[in-house]
Amino acid sequence: MIAQPLPDSGLSRSLAPRHVTMISMGGVIGAGVFVGSSAAIAGVGPAVVLSYLIAGALILMVMRMLAEMATALPAVRSFAEFARAGLGPGAGFVVGWLYWYFWIIVVPVEAIAGAALLHDWIALPAWLLGGGLIAVMTAVNLMSARSYGEFEFWFASIKVSAIILFIALSAAYACGVLSPSGPTWGNLVSHDGFMPRGALAVLAGVTSVFFSLTGAEITTVAAAESRDPVRALTTMTTSVITRIMIFYVGSILLIVAVVPWDRIVPGYSPFTQALLAMHFSWAGRAMSLLILTAVLSCLNSAFYVTSRVLFALAECRDAPQWIVRLNARRVPARSVLIGTGAGLIGIGAAIWSPSGVFAFLVNASGALILFVYMLTAFAQIRVRRRLDASSLRLKVWWFPWSSYATIGGMVAVLLAMAFTPALATQFYVSLAALTLALCAYGITARHRRNAERIRA
């Protein structure tokens, strides 16, 4: 018998389809693509496009697994709860807490990054600007799920529109329409070839690229507060990630076509570098605003996700029951305020060591999302084997080999992290977090068994 959480969470159903669509797209299009892609390009060369395709295929398969489970188990409406449905309460506990931990780390990371961007324009202390961002996003998320969805709709709309505009301008330049020297597609092979660092560099690039693509699963959290959860899940988990892949791969391909890959400076937005190479003088200021929008969007989503995941954990009695209580707007206000506290603690610690605290927070999240995705993939395999496949409206392609291949791909990414000096710390810190979550479940399960014996 497949375990399922409570069918009615009591949360509002105020998110419209347009909100869920842009939430899922906005969850993936963040500062990782606008800035983080520079390191991947510099480390791999033009063949970084292949790294994005491989990483995107893994994410696409995870989303397809979620879509299959969503149609088979309509009562399960939260990302972390699919592991519980397939693997039991232990997996639900571990995945829920690891996923919450992943996003609670994002709150101070994005607040610190946003404060640093604002500090270039506003002559106020970074800690005050960061605190202001935390206060604004707290207020947005306390108002209602719809207010979060509305803010995220416009944040994501700006990001998507900007990428579409960039693709149009850079495609015209690469094809020679805007370029005074004619087509620039030769940049893909003229600087030591398409694969200057070799095939191994392409595989190693998947490690950093993978984390830029995470966040699409936010759809499965937001769907619980949409008007038609099952339809939202089944539609968005595959179609949206496909669109995002087009944006990601298309924009990165055009960047290395417009600018020789060996001129890309790690840590500096390659979009800005490409626009400047096309002689658009407004590029620097425009990209700074766009990156700030991406940071605010991610901060907004982090508040929302942490509050709903913690609420779901409490609903399944894996977190303190007082977190379950909703305010008059049917928002888990106490869960939101816990995110506020985490953000303020991170900003406060950054006063004494800005770079050190930021690096610690980034390392603290590390490979957590990979552990969560892998457990979700194992859950999908078990759920599929328990059901009549002929009755499923939506299926994972080429099951079970595609599911095994997806798990194998994520194991390869984890091994690459472990053997890459710059990423090894993140891997081992995340492994410690996984171990701690397993121990916590063991202690919790033992207490529950003792309590049941006493009641019996």
What report would you give on this structure?
The chain has 456 residues and is mainly α. Helix content is 73%, strand content 0%. The two termini are 24 Å apart.
What's this model, at a glance?
The protein has helices spanning 17-28, 31-44, 48-72, 81-87, 89-119, 126-143, 145-174, 199-213, 218-222, 229-258, 270-277, 283-315, 333-352, 354-365, 368-386, 401-418, 421-455.
State the helicity in percent bands.
over 70%
What's the SSE pattern?
Answer: HHHHHHHHHHHHHHHHH
What is the straight-line distance between the termini?
Answer: 24 Å
Whole-number radius of gyration? 22 Å
Assign the CATH topology.
Amino acid/polyamine transporter I
